[in-house]
């Protein structure tokens, strides 16, 4: 028997849902406010929660993280209004187990609850078999929902021995995450061996990966253990796996199947049992279609797929990452910790970061060097090129007061600093959305109902957007 909590201010609905829950032989608890519901979830061993979105004391979706952090980490099923696609979408984005319309039939409700409880039973028994100790994040900073999803996947991947493929734009932290998979796995005390497929000359790849014996070729003046053999019992990290020459992909596939290698010039086979983690910023599926990456190899390397989001989609993580690296830099260089002015962060947030965290770290290093012994970082310490680019984009977007009413102007970039189209598009859309929302809230005098009617948005969607852009209402 499971314990199911229903949080809805509609007493009749609470009553009818409780009956459905009890008829499935579960215990039902009810709460008419968010406050009461959170208290019950904190106190009791709750397995599942039916959660309304609009409650008298707040928005249910915003309370989702708190509910999921309750001691029993219940599965949450969101109750949405009839035909509310925004609510359904938000429920899923925010990590609910499922959503169900308030008018759903008894059968649908019972089935959704049964599925959530079955998933929960399986999850609990898997955790009992493989208890997950707190994840060692290996210096990875970030708390945004997208990053938390990535940490969840690292925890799951680390608990197994299956291969992991990490994708993401350049500088998003692929190597850092590969190290985290290793550091959290049972292989953590064995070697973590990196192979940068992009930087090894094609003529040397084979001997570097497989090793060679003395005299195997001109210049082979001694035996050399290959990187694959070095990774025995540990983790082999193939960075930029898309660059692995076609000629070697077949041989490497055999290594994955048989776990044995023959060093160049040797008759002996060497055994190596390693966990494989690969990374790439290329589209391997597209490479398979164009015939430059083997389909069978792709199948073998991505039992788990981890897609790292670009920095521009990580919200306030940017500030946290920046603060982390500023503190690290000051510590490493023996300087006093520096303060940061809020407009310093404002400028950082206006940039689209096509080079992601790596670009941010480089920019911060430059700012810290140029600030010398001054105790606080100001925008003037940032590289001139970056400030100029941000200023240009701001003006062309009408952020400058004198241009605020002007027509939309496409920002111009100097040819050397063109961002990727996707980065540009994301930034422009996010800025346009934020501007619209500010105008919308100002125009409706902060009246959320009026703003929803004007924008054609549901309240939950509007709240989520305001939260995303940090706009008060
Ligand atoms: N979430 C994060 N928190 C703190 N630092 C990070 C984070 N992500 C990346 N970094 C830092 O950014 C830099 C680049 O990270 P990393 O080398 O792992 O990226 P990558 O995706 O492998 O890059 P590339 O595609 O160019 O190989 C490193 O200095 C790393 O420490």
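Q: What amino acid sequence fits the structure above?
A:
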């Amino acid at each position: 028997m499971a314990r199911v909590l229903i949080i809805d201010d509609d007493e009749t609905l609470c009553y009818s849902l409780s009956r459905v829950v009890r008829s499935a032989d579960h215990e039902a608890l009810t709460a008419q406010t968010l406050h009461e519901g959170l208290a019950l979830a904190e106190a009791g061993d709750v397995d599942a929660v039916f959660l309304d979105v609009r409650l008298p004391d707040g928005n249910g979706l915003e309370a989702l993280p708190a509910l999921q952090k309750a001691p029993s980490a219940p599965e949450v099923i969101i109750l949405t209004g009839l035909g509310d696609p925004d609510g359904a979408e938000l429920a899923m984005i925010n990590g609910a187990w499922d959503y169900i319309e308030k008018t759903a039939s008894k059968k649908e409700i019972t089935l959704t609850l049964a599925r959530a409880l079955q998933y929960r039973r399986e999850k609990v028994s898997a955790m009992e078999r493989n208890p997950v100790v707190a994840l060692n994040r290996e210096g990875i900073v970030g708390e945004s929902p997208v990053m938390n999803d990535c940490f969840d996947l690292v925890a799951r991947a680390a608990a197994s021995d299956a291969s992991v493929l990490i994708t993401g734009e350049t500088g998003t932290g692929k190597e850092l995450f590969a190290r985290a998979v290793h550091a959290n796995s049972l292989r953590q005390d064995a070697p973590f061996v990196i192979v940068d497929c992009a930087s090894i000359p094609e003529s040397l790849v084979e001997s570097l990966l497989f090793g060679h014996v003395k005299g195997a070729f001109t210049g082979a003046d001694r035996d050399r253990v290959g990187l694959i053999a070095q990774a025995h019992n540990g983790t082999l990290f193939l960075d930029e796996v898309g660059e692995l020459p076609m000629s070697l992909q077949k041989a490497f596939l055999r290594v994955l199947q048989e776990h044995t290698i023959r060093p160049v010039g040797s008759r002996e086979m060497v055994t190596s049992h390693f966990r494989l983690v690969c990374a790439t910023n290329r589209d391997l599926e597209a490479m398979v279609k164009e015939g430059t990456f083997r389909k069978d190899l792709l199948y073998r390397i991505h039992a788990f797929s981890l897609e790292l989001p670009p920095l521009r989609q990580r919200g306030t993580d940017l500030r946290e990452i920046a603060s982390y690296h500023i503190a690290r830099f000051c510590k490493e260089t023996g300087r006093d910790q520096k303060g940061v002015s809020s407009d310093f962060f404002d400028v950082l947030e206006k940039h689209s970061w096509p080079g992601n965290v790596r670009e941010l770290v480089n920019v911060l290093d430059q700012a810290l060097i140029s600030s010398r012994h001054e105790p606080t970082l100001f925008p003037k310490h940032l590289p001139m090129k970056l400030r100029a680019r941000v200023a240009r984009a701001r003006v062309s977007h009408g952020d400058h007061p004198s241009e605020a009413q002007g027509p939309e102007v496409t920002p111009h970039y100097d040819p050397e600093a063109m961002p990727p189209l996707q980065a540009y598009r994301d930034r422009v859309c996010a800025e346009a959305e934020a501007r619209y929302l500010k105008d919308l809230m100002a125009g409706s005098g902060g009246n959320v109902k009026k703003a929803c009617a004007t924008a054609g948005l549901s309240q939950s969607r509007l709240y989520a957007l305001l939260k995303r852009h940090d706009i008060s209402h």
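Q: And what stands out in the fold?
A: The CA atoms of residues 5 and 297 lie 47 Å apart.
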